[in-house]
# Entry
Amino acid sequence: MEEEFQKAVKRSKELTKRPTNEELLKLYALFKQTTEGDVAEERPGGFDFKAIAKHDAWAEIKGTPKEQAMTDYIELVKNLHEKYA
# Structure
């Protein structure tokens, strides 16, 4: 499954159109959950809204097992390719 995940990561960079912000946040969160596990850092403050959104998206899937996050990531990339490639 690790090999499939790495292929999906590569494919995620080959989209010809930009996915929605929501889709990009989900992609980011699943990637981070797969590669680093649960979010451990403090929520960013101030006006860095992009960093806050990324943190919140990752925190939202806290507790998701690595294998599940990996499977979800692969599936999401497949769906994005159908939509945007």
User: Anything to note?
Assistant: The chain has a mean pLDDT of 96. The helical segments are 2-12, 21-36, 49-60, 66-84.
